[in-house]
Write a structure and sequence with these properties.
alpha/beta, single chain, Rossmann fold, 338 residues, 17% strand
């Protein structure tokens, strides 16, 4: 089976969809699937995967496809049995395809996105993409339920993998005792709640990621590191008291799983998708509840035994491997291609 993939997220993007796409295409290739990935010229792809480069800027290429119907992904990829879209995005497919949906935050909380991002999502036509797809994949049962309710489409649940925890390493000690956030520095991640809850606490607050809230968060006293290397991120996970994910919306949630690989527990919003993935290694707090989040952070900072118990529970959480997730996606792609 030859699978064509929309790989635009691989062009220098360190966010969740890029990690998901890279992990899945590598897993598909390891399963013997012939994978061709459309990427901007010069973009690195996982070993065993064929890169099909284009020289047009990615946004221009796909916005043009959305508006004019040209160029089509299938034509650029060459002969393939099925196209896989790792996330909704503007463009013209021109062939049978499978679509992955991670969450519906762009519909549930549109105010968290910029005007440009809202236009991007409208041009992506996620409802139409989902309804025309040969198959739809959801990364969690919660996302599948939301897709069914919003779009009237049944989705097959295939977990999004373990993320990229990086190598086991010595803890980062630059910040002393600290809480860690990893992700986009955007409103939907609940960062205003996090900063308010952290105010006056002794442990530092370290933020890894990029986004339009970076300057505001830095002025509030957080250590904003931006994008870091894989090894540096691993050391930060290993040294943190806990990773904190106070999101308003999540479809899966990589940071808790990545932290668990280093024995670090999590504090997360009490969301159905995070209950699915983070399991017993996390403390759950109502989203947007500053007082509850502050209490959880204080308790984990002050109680080493509690951290140890959560860390032990985190070690028992079953985190799906890329191999397992790749086999699940391969089965969906084969069914769609048939």
């Amino acid at each position: 089976m030859r699978v064509g993939v929309d790989g635009r997220s691989l062009a220098g993007d360190a966010r969740g969809v890029a990690r998901y796409t890279a992990g899945m295409v590598a897993a598909l290739a390891a399963e013997g699937v012939d994978v061709r990935v459309l990427v901007p010229a010069g973009t690195a792809v996982p070993a065993g995967v064929e890169a099909v480069g284009h020289r047009m800027p990615g946004r221009l290429l796909h916005l043009g496809g959305a508006v004019t119907g040209r160029p089509r992904l299938a034509r650029q990829l060459g002969p393939v049995d099925i196209v896989w879209l790792p996330a909704p995005a503007p463009g013209a497919v021109g062939a049978r395809y499978v679509l992955t949906l991670h969450d519906l935050s762009f519909l549930e909380r549109p105010g968290d996105f910029t005007a440009y991002e809202r236009l991007w999502h409208r041009l992506a036509r996620p409802r139409t993409l989902a309804r025309r797809a040969a198959r739809v994949v959801a990364v969690s049962a919660d996302t599948a339920q939301r897709v069914r309710a919003r779009f009237g489409v049944q989705a097959t649940v295939v977990p999004a993998g373990p993320g990229d925890p990086g190598p086991r390493t010595e803890p980062d000690t630059r910040f002393g005792r600290y809480f860690l956030f990893v992700g986009a520095l955007e409103p939907r991640k609940g960062l205003d709640t996090l900063v308010a809850a952290h105010s006056g606490l002794e442990p530092a607050l370290v933020l890894v990621g990029e986004g339009r809230l970076a300057a505001r968060l830095r002025s509030a006293g957080a250590h904003v590191l931006g994008r870091v290397s894989r090894a540096e991120k691993a050391a930060l996970y290993a040294g943190a008291l806990a990773v904190v994910l106070p999101s308003w919306c999540e479809g899966y949630g990589y940071p808790p799983l990545e932290a668990y690989a280093h024995g670090t527990p999590a504090i997360v919003s009490d969301l159905p998708a995070l209950r699915e993935t983070a399991g017993a290694g996390a403390r759950y707090v109502p989203r947007g509840d500053v007082a509850a989040l502050r209490t959880a952070m204080t308790e984990l900072a002050d109680d080493a035994a509690l951290r140890d118990r959560l860390g032990a529970a985190a070690a028992d959480v079953v985190v799906p491997s890329w191999e397992t997730c790749g086999r699940g996606l391969k089965a969906v792609l084969e069914a769609a291609a048939a």
